[in-house]
Each structure stands twice: as structure tokens, then as C-alpha cells.
Amino acid sequence: MHDRFLSRIDKLRSKIRECECDSMLVSNYTNVTYLTGFTGDSSYLFVTQDNVVLITDFRYITQLEQECPGLDLHQRSTNETMPEMVEVVVKKAGVSKLAIEASTMSVALRDSIAERLPSAELVSSTMVVELLRQIKDDHEIEEIRRSIRMAERAFETIKASLRGDQTEKLVTAELEHQIRLFGGVGCAFPPIVGVGPQAALPHAVPGDSRIADDDFVLIDWGAKAGLYLSDLTRVLVTGSVSDKLRRIYRIVLNAQEAAISKIAPGVPMCDVDAAARSVIADAGHAEHFGHGLGHGFGLEIHEQPRLGAKHSEPLEVGMVITVEPGIYLPGWGGVRIEDDVLVTESGHEVLSRVSKQLDDCIVEL
């Protein structure tokens, strides 16, 4: 395996010791990918202080040889269940306290494994690997940068070719098409394209509304480049810029800029959220901003950390987070501006580059 995966496993071993366990069964497939580079599923990783074993099946043997050379594999046959294979591997290792991923393992699976391992104590653990994942290494940061560039190129192409007769669903499909043309795997998540009143729904589902049906459209999108994702939101003005739109847009942009300016190592996450929320509240729209300010992302679109009022943990170097304040007015529409930001030793770096100045967001149909 590559050194970066060995380093991640070493960090996990330290966390296993902190849990007062001698081993861990990683059953979350995304966590398995993070620790090994293996991109398949239906496989568990068993980690002890001196060994790592991937429990897998015939479908992935060749793939594993390509993606994870040197990784110890335990192949289960077609008539063997995963709990049976876990029993074999754990008993062979002779461990007594096995940490499991309680937040992703079903109760039924946990009970089945416990029944087969009466001499081993199963210890429920939560967010162990996920908290490792929130600090991105240099390779991950570069992959995220690549993902952002693909997303931005796709968006600029869509913006330049936007037509009034295009529906929300068609713009969504075109975004995916352009991301693939620029070398991406596809969209990081189902894009949100909301025309006019639909933009008041933070997670609007694209429908048959046409771009020309209102004066603006909100687009929330991202790309998947290799294994890593990006997450951006912009509002495009496709008609006249009303005083109301200009006023709401300025409030949201000021809120985002206030929040980004607070980002630095050691700053409590809730303080960043509060910086944006206070700007929106002071403008009289507190009740129109009802979601958290942002979140981490990487292998998944929603990861640790979380920027919200209840999260007092400090920001750390290597975290990559979204900053996405919004104001949502039912019946009229909504404005959300979202960028991807890296926490650096000296403060922060805004990784996304698509202009968010309102005049640059005006499109001639």
C-alpha cells in the first residue's frame, strides 16, 4: 500500500488504543476506502496493532491486487457469510476487545458477530475513522482542488450556453454531461437547480420550470474527480435585477464574507457560524436562515466537521469546509452563496474561484 494509507492506519491504531481496544473492525465502505484505497464494497477491514486484513470475496481479488498491492486478504467463499469470516479472522488474531463502528453497523450484524465471538468483547465506537478523515492530507487537498476546477469549468460552460427554454432538469443533466467531458466521474451529488420560487427550497428537486420563468435561478452543484468531491452554489440572474434581489444578495454575500474572514486554526466552529448568522439576523432575516453554515466534505459530500451553533470544537489545519449562508423567502425565492475553504496555518484559503459578485452573475438569455 502507498505510504499515505499506512500513515492513516497508524493514526487509527493510536485511536484504537485510546478506546482501550486491541483491534477494530471497519465495516463502513467509505472508511475502508480511506484507509486502503480500495474502491469496492462488501468488504471489511480488520486492524490490529501489528496487522491489517481485508475480508473480501472473489469479485474483488484482481481489483485489490491493482489498488492495494501487499494488503493481506482473507477471501470468503460463496457459501460463507461475512460474520463467519469475521469470526475466523478475529479468532486467528487472538484479540480480546474488538471495536466496531456502531453508527454504521446494524444491530442484527452486531449481534451475529457477538454470538460467534463469545470470548471477545465488542466495544461500540463512533466517528473514529470519520474524525481522522476531517483532516485532509496533501494528496486529498490536491484531489479536492481538481474536483473544484472541474465543477467550475462545467458551470462556466453551462452559464455561457444558458437558454430561457431550458428546464431545471435539463440544466441538471447538462451539468453532469459537462463534468464528465472535463474528466470527472460525474456529479458529487444530485445538483439543485431552482428557478425563482423553487430557490426558496434549500434542497429543491429540479423539475420542469424553465429558466425564463423567473428572473433568477439558484444552482448548487459539485464534481467528483477520482474519489473526491466538491460543493458550490451560485445564483444566476436571468432577467431584471430587482431591488429586492439586490438587497437579499448583498446580505447573504456580506454574511459569507464575515464568516470566511473568521476561519483560522483554533477558532470555534460555532463562532464562524455566528459571524454569518448575525449579519443575516441584523438584516431582519434570522428566521429565513434555518440550516447550518457549512460542513466538511471529501470522499463524501457531508463529512466532519460541521459549522453550526452547537459545534464548539476548534478548526484545525487541513480541514476543508463549505461556507454557505442563505436567505429563503417562500413564494419569492432564495439566495445561497457557497464556497469551499481550506483551513491553513496562517488562516484560510478559498479554493473556489467562480465570481460571486452580482454583476458577474447576470446572464443574457
Detailed description of the structure:
This protein has 365 residues and is α+β, with helices and mostly antiparallel strands. The chain folds into two domains: 3-133, 3-Layer(aba) Sandwich (Creatine Amidinohydrolase, Chain A, domain 1); 138-361, Alpha-Beta Complex (Creatine Amidinohydrolase). The protein is 36% helix and 23% strand. The protein contains ten helices and 19 strands. The chain has helices at 3-18, 29-36, 61-67, 82-93, 107-116, 128-133, 138-160, 168-181, 243-262, 269-282, and strands at 23-26, 44-48, 52-57, 72-76, 97-101, 121-125, 186-187, 192-195, 216-221, 223-225, 228-229, 232-237, 294-296, 303-307, 320-323, 326-329, 333-336, 339-344, 347-350. The protein has a six-stranded mixed beta sheet, sandwiched between helices. The protein has a three-stranded antiparallel beta sheet with strand order 7-10-11. Helix 4 (82-93) packs across helix 5. The model has no long low-confidence stretch (mean pLDDT 97).
